[in-house]
Every structure is written in structure tokens, then in C-alpha cells.
Amino acid sequence: MKAFALKRLSLALCAATLLTGALTACVPLVVGGAFAGGTMLATDRRTSGAQLEDEGIELRASSRIRGNVGDRAHVNLTSYNRQVLLTGEVPSAQDKQLVEQIVSRVENVNSVVNELAVSGNSSLSQRSTDVLVTGRVKANLLDARDLQSNVFKVVTERGTTYLMGRVSQREADRATQVVRATPGVQKVVRIFELLSDDELARMSSSTSAPVRPPAPLVTDPPASN
User: Fold this and answer.
1) Whether the model pTM is above 0.70
2) CATH architecture for the domain at 124-219
3) d(Cα 105, Cα 103) in Å, to the nearest integer?
4) pLDDT tier at 133 (50, 70, 90 boundaries)?
5) How many CA atoms lie within 13 A of 129 on its CB side?
6) What does the alpha-carbon distance between residue 194 and residue 212 come to, in Å, rounded to a whole number?
7) Torsion angle of alpha carbons 44, 45, 50, 55, nearest 10°?
8) Average pLDDT in the 163-168 region?
């Protein structure tokens, strides 16, 4: 119980730290790397090699994007099991396509989900709100005792929360239920690699896991007026 409380507190502190950074600096490109602590590595369903490759993908891709589009775009890049999610804003459709092409050519990238919006860069207020929403989502996933919160990668952009991970159908549906009930979440986009219950059981004793094609992108239906 004490460890659970400390873990939840650490999420709140991380969110507060990120919020402080968002309020004090305008960062045009944000890399969405995961924590690399022992607990995270122990519960991460990616192989250790995939985790290292994801870190390398984020570093190389962010550097190349910065070199090509500079400060005219605000791009968030998150790699999970060699699948890259792009969120943020770019000034033109040409820039949106350019960023996707740059990332798709990075070594070890298997696929790219391009959720970049063609619009002006989001405000610091919006980014701060997104940080707080992400913190709430992570805390709520941690509170859900029937889920392993560390198997989910959470990204929030302009009120839309993206979920990534290698999960079962039950876990995907349950996590979506939890996230939709989180204050501030306007829409949920699921980018999951679905695993069977038998696969999850085998993974607990396996030292490696194959790279599989991701499940189709699933989003909430548009809100009715």
C-alpha cells in the first residue's frame, strides 16, 4: 500500500515538473521517451532491445526533424515497439508529409501514425493543460487495480489522449473506459498492439517477444452537438 501511494505521488510530481517546464520555456520539439528505471523495465512488455531502439529512434528522428523544419513546427514524437506516433502542429500539409517521410526513413522504424495538425502552434496554456491531463490519466490507470499501468504509453495533445502499448483486448477496453472518464480528456485514440491471453501468459516466461503489426487505429466517434 505504501509503495502504491509513493508511486502515485511520483506521477503527480512528474506532472508538476513537466508543467513547470512548459510554463517557463517554449520547446518546439518534444521527445516522448519512457522512464528507464528498474520498475518500468521489469513491467514493460517490449524486449530490452526494442526499448533501446525506441530511445534511439526518438533521438535520431527528433534531430532530423529539427534540422529540416526548425522552429516553425511543434512536433511531439513517441516511439513504442518501433511504431512512431507524431502529434503536435505544423504550418502546412507539405510540412506534415515531410515530417512523416523523415521519421519513416529512420533506422528501425516499422510504421508511423501521423496525427500532426496543420495549424498554428499550440499555446503554453494548452500544453500545460495537456500535461495535467496526462498526469491524471496515468494516475487513474495506476488506481485501476485490474490493469498494469506501466504497459501503457500515454500522450495528450490538444485534449486528445493517445494510448499505446502491447495489451489484450480486455486491457484495451478497460483502459479506454478509465481514460474516457478522466476530466479533461475530450477524445481517446488507441494505437495498440493486441495480444491474446495465451501470448501474455507466454511473455511472462519468455525472454523475447516478436515484433507484430499494430492493430488498426481506433478513435472515439466525434462528439455530437
Assistant:
1) yes
2) 2-Layer Sandwich (3.30)
3) 5
4) very high
5) 15
6) 9
7) -30
8) 97
Residue type, 210: P
Q: Are strands 187-194 and 117-118 parallel, antiparallel or unpaired?
A: unpaired
- Contact between residue 78 and residue 153 where contact means Cβ atoms under 8 Å apart: yes
CA distance 135 to 200: 27
At residue 39, does pLDDT exceed 60?
Answer: no
In angstroms, rounded to a whole number, what is the distance separating the alpha carbons of residues 199 and 197?
A: 5
Q: Distance between CA atoms of 135 and 139, rounded to whole angstroms?
A: 6
Q: What 3-state DSSP class applies to 120?
A: coil
35 CB neighbour count, 10 Å cutoff: 12
**pLDDT tens digits, one per residue of 112-130:** 999 999 999 999 999 999 9
Q: Quick check: 135 pLDDT over 70?
A: yes
CA–CA dist 20, 25 (Å, integer)? 9
For 27-118, CATH number? Answer: 1.10.287
Per domain, the residue ranges of the chain are 27-118, 124-219
